[in-house]
Design a protein that fits this description.
Layout: E1 3-7, H1 13-30, H2 39-47, E2 53-62, E3 65-75, E4 82-89, H3 98-112, E5 117-124, H4 135-142, E6 146-157, H5 163-176, E7 180-185, H6 194-207, H7 222-235, E8 238-246, E9 251-260, E10 267-275, H8 284-299, E11 305-311, H9 315-324, E12 327-338
Parallel strand pairs: 4-5, 10-11
Antiparallel strand pairs: 1-2, 2-3, 3-4, 5-12, 6-11, 6-12, 7-8, 8-9, 9-10
The structure holds coenzyme A.
């Protein structure tokens, strides 16, 4: 049984097919309640990189057959000593050393690049469901990583969403947010708000709980926001956004985003929600989220579920999500390894 690990050749279609099949098989084994990965998005890093991310994609073969893959995301604009990692082994070929071989390869690439840390996440059982067998945590611990941040994925079942309650939450939030008006947009942020969106996105990591993760503030500006939009356009990701504008200054001071993969009509991700610290305490977080939920539902009649991740200790955001009807669906742990 010979294991080899080599860089993925973007023009090698049979290997790309095999690698995608492994992603689908792993997802249905490890997170069966999520839809299969969107192929267009999956392959996009090969052709349409995100600004500031240099993706190194490698394939593991067992006796010549692709059985696993690693994506190492090297950060080039900020966090240049860090790499995010995705490492997946075909469920039919686990516990044969393939994961370890991919990890060793990733370590070598990171070292050559002058990097110091790898960060990856694994699915973990929710409290009370600890008997569920999930290999990621045991593997991460076996390669020497340390748990750095506990997250919970929460899910909103849109089919049982209490629409009158959503309308009344929104009305209450609007009443509490005198002096602010909401704006909605789709895939591209209006030019007048792009600098404010960059400011909000850039300061997200100053506020979000990071646990033990060594992650610095990301350098965001209007140009990078436009670059991210181009990359998401290429992935076919549909985005819905709502923001709150402070009427006295004209600044966009709160913002929330939902997105759907190109392959998805039933499933969406609740992405970022952030309120500028100077404007907290006016229910702008709830306002933007509830407004955006209505916005998305009005364009996506087939939507059935929305998932979102929060740090387990992010009590504020979790309270808003619970009010909207999100409930825990799975645990997740971010692991950090200093090489
Ligand atoms: C985690 C994963 C990559 C492991 O792949 P693998 O090829 O089975 O890993 P290896 O055979 O190299 O295992 C290396 C060590 O990890 C630990 N390990 C891996 N799977 C384990 C399991 N199910 N139970 C307990 N320990 C486990 C063991 O210590 C193992 O060494 P050993 O077999 O000598 O005891 C694979 O299960 C997977 O793709 N999971 C889903 C994605 C994921 O969680 N990725 C990791 C985070 S980025």
């Amino acid at each position: 049984m010979a294991i080899s690990v080599t860089p993925l050749d973007p023009n090698d279609q049979p290997t790309l097919d095999a690698v995608y099949r492994i992603a689908v098989a792993a997802q249905s084994a490890d997170e069966p309640d999520l839809p299969p990965p969107c192929r267009r998005r999956f392959e996009a890093p090969l052709w349409h990189p995100m600004p500031g991310i240099d993706t190194r994609w490698s394939v593991a073969r067992l006796d010549g057959v692709p059985v696993g893959w690693l994506r190492l995301y090297l950060h080039t604009l900020d966090n240049t000593e860090n790499a995010s990692v995705e490492l997946v082994v075909d469920p039919a070929y686990r516990r044969r050393g393939v994961g370890r071989a991919l990890h060793e390869h990733g370590r070598t690439v990171l070292r050559e690049h002058g990097g110091k840390r790898m960060v990856g996440s694994t699915v973990t059982p929710l409290p009370g469901a600890e008997n569920r067998e999930l290999p990621g945590a045991a593997f991460a611990a076996a390669v020497g990583a340390r748990p750095a941040l506990a997250d919970v994925r929460r899910r909103l079942d849109v089919t049982t969403l209490d629409r009158p309650r959503l309308a009344s939450l929104l009305a209450d939030a609007r009443a509490a947010a005198a002096g602010y008006r909401t704006v909605r947009w789709g895939d591209h942020v209006p030019e007048e708000h792009v600098a404010d969106v960059a400011h909000l996105e850039g300061r997200l990591l100053l506020d979000a709980p990071l646990g033990e993760l060594a992650w610095e503030q990301e350098k965001m500006d209007a140009e990078r926001i436009r670059g991210v939009e181009r990359a998401l356009d290429a992935r076919g990701v549909r985005r819905y956004n709502a923001g709150a504008v402070h009427e006295a200054s004209g600044r966009l001071v709160a913002w929330s985003q939902l997105s759907l993969e190109a392959s998805s009509v039933q499933h969406a991700w609740q992405q970022i929600t952030i309120v500028d610290p100077a404007h907290r305490g006016h229910r702008l977080g709830l306002l933007c989220k509830a407004e955006n939920l209505e916005h998305t539902l009005s364009h996506e009649p087939g939507l059935r579920v929305i998932d979102t991740y929060n740090a387990a200790e992010n009590t504020h955001m979790i309270a808003i999500n619970e009010q909207l009807g999100f409930r825990p669906a799975a645990g997740s742990t971010d692991w950090q390894l200093t090489i």
